Amino acid sequence: MDRCTLSTHPAQTRRCLVVLLTLGSWGAVCAVNAWFFLAIVVPKLSTPSVLVLSAVQLPWMLIWLWGLHGFLHQVVSAFDPVLSLPVARACSAKPVAILYTTCDDFDAYACRSLLLQDFRHTRLIICDDSTEQSSRDRIDEWVRVAGAKVVIVRRNNRQGFKAGNLNFALSTVVHEDIFVLCDADQVLPPSFVGKAIQVLEASGVGFVQCGNAARSPGATWLSEALGPAVDIFYQFALPSRNRYGFVSCFGHAAIVRRDAWQAAGRFPEVVTEDLAFAMMALAQGYQGRFSANPSGEESFPQTYSALKQKYIRIVAGTVESLRRYGPTLLRSPRASWVEKLDAFLTFSTCYLPVIILMSVAGGMVFSHLAGGSGYVKVQGWLLALYLVGPQTPILALLKRAFAEPKRYLRFVVVASVVYSSLVPSLAWTAIRQTFLSPGCSFVPTGAAAKVPERLLSHARTIAAGLMLIGFAAVVGSPVLVPTVVFGLMIAIGPLQTLSAGVTASGSLVRWSVLVPYAVLVSGLLMEW
Question: With 70 as the cut, is the pLDDT of residue 10 above it?
């Protein structure tokens, strides 16, 4: 297929909508913020207070930029009714290889769903990187029962992470021109491949990233409570990218052309090979598309430790991909400036934890210095600047919350505590990967979930939360209450390592996520 036909853009004026709205609204927020502080706050402050204020406010504006960008994409995805892709009328007869990647986390139920596809021209290839002999034996036995339609591919090393696993299979045993990517926990409905190849053929793109939902019920209380994060991501964050931004590949439930894989120089052998592949493919003129239908199912990490490990891997891998492959995308004449800007606005959020910690620490110092200057009143504008910005991405989810209020209320409460507790670790990961570049490690989420949970493994996170609370108490500032609440969220999050039990202690841990909210309400009532 002619490469040039793979990168046809909608009219640029329409394609710029979300990016221009983001930059325009962010500019307005920055202007109002600057006026408020320069005209009202700064004249009342000492020079040290002004310097600290500047150091806090400038990075905090990045949170507003990321928040508005995500919010606008979610609004468009939620309310624009014409984002669906064309579907080929005739059913394709091209053979499709289904690549199932596993590394000591084989899931027989998920793998069987790949074998039961209605599309007859499929071949299942298990790309096994398992190191445990018991895992290999289990796969061998499953394949023996499944029959000749399944092929196992193993290599002598694990170089290149998941990308190396896929590249080895595609270079040795896969001869099909189209292939589907599946993780170990990926469950696909019988019609998935048939529908996916129709969308791919009709769209004429390099790959199609299909939708996903969380497998329900979740394997644990934590995975069930946080499962809506998967639904939210695929339903609200991705659909608008087809028209207004950059479509990334997420490494599973995706159908890919071999031509795009070859043009990208195979899958880049980094931890986030999916993002790097999408960037390199687009740089060569091969766009991606998102399609909510067909949709598969994936498991949410079963344990707190597995969730933490997953996000550390994502942050480290995203930083590495932006550094190594971002310049190539920026220089490419085949990608529009809208796609380039959207890609960097979207994935630069890997630095969000760093900005959050800078803002919290700086906000405490500033409020203390401001109090020494006689400026002790916390303005509503100031609270709005700090509280509204981070919340903008979730406002569009009210549409879904009205349909399932109980499920989504639990999700918001639990997710706020758990994800807040990840901030110190993720901030350090981003800093280390940016300035020290020690390389990334890859521990499959399923394999990480099999490691017994140990609360002591997260002692540093708990200590960071307690230190923040102590710092807030010693400094004693007008923002004492929200800082203590954030510290409590950091300290309580790791307790979810003990939430799986059906005992009274497990129940107590699960209810502990409400403690920060109780402190917040009590503190605000006392201040008022």
Answer: no
